Amino acid sequence: MQNGPAVRRRKLGAELRTLRTGAGLTSGDAARLVGWHQSKVSRIETGASGVKPADVRLLLDAYEVRDGQLRELLLMLAGSDGTGDRHRWWHAYRGVLPPAYRDFISLESQASTMRTLETTVVPGLLQTPEYARAVTRAAVSDLDEEGLDALVEVRLARQDVLRADPPLELSAVLDEAVLRREVGGPEVMTRQLERLMEAARLPQVRLQVLPFSAGAHVGLTGPFVILSFPSTSDLDVVVLDQLTSSLYLERKEDLMAYAEAFDTLRMHALSPEDTLDYIAGIGDGA
Predict the structure, then answer these.
(1) Shortest CA distance to 190 belongs to which of 285, 120, 274?
(2) Is the distance from CB of 173 to CB of 267 less than 8 angstroms?
(3) Cβ-contact 136, 152 below 8 angstroms
(4) What is the CA radius of gyration of the chain?
(5) CB atoms within 10 A of CB 262
(6) Mean pLDDT lowest among 55-69, 80-94, 137-151
(7) I want to staple 48 with a disulfide (CB 3.0 to 4.6 A). Which of 43, 73, 116, 132 is the partner?
(8) DSSP secondary-structure letter at 96?
(9) SS3 state at 45
């Protein structure tokens, strides 16, 4: 388990190494092409040292990488502020966002798919403003109103990934407890359930409820998010939220275990169609 920056460095290095070997170059060849010492290329590829976005551009040019989407993703992993506005809007909130949250948003903004299990609250990408405010106030009780407003704005701005071109594809499994827990009061929950049904009808959203009747399941260990990226699967990462930080799992064995767990949860959950009926029933007081 690593923090966000360490994961990004190592994944960036591994991808650059793959691109170098794909171009038929040794690390010495790459170093000569960009005017560096070979040890710098090696340190970057192993994730032992950080790399500036300008240096990543040099390497990508040397490897003749023309895929614009892949270049943008790798520059994001290097911490670039020079990508599109869509991928750096959160910088305006740096003063109120914890580093771990910034790391997550930066990865989320570049991901092509998200698979998530939620056991306590509605996923942030599907929250209404009122629900987001109630959750944020409960989670960070010492915030003043200005700080609370800023964090709610961030939560809502994150939802733009579902309306992007192409949009993030979201597959979410919600434990029934998420729907039963009254956050913000009855009116807030009524609107939130309506919002979930609206989102479930979007082609880029697959929503499934895991009812109490399913009994014990693999997700009882806690919620998780699996982020996958365009152009390469080697950058996929599992994110586990903790009270004061986020943990990132990047080993292939961990990714496979969580992917299999998610597939199992989907099998035991209600179908997307039955999920709509189930949420409507809860909304009607069932």
Answers:
(1) 285
(2) no
(3) yes
(4) 21
(5) 21
(6) 80-94
(7) 43
(8) T
(9) helix
245 has pLDDT over 90? no
**Lowest mean pLDDT, pick from 12-26, 117-131, 225-239:** 225-239
Please say whether the beta carbons of 172 and 200 come within 8 A: no
pTM: 0.80
End-to-end CA distance of the chain: 41
Q: Which DSSP state fits 216? A: S
For strand 169-175 and strand 205-210, is the pairing parallel, antiparallel, or unpaired?
parallel
Q: Quick one: average pLDDT of 260-285? A: 94
Nearest to 180 by CA among 278, 68, 257, 39: 278
d(CA 212, CA 116): 18
Asked if 186 contacts 116 with a C-beta cutoff of 8 angstroms, the reply is no
Q: Residue 150 corresponds to which tokens in the numbers above?
A: 């800023």
200 DSSP 8-state letter: H
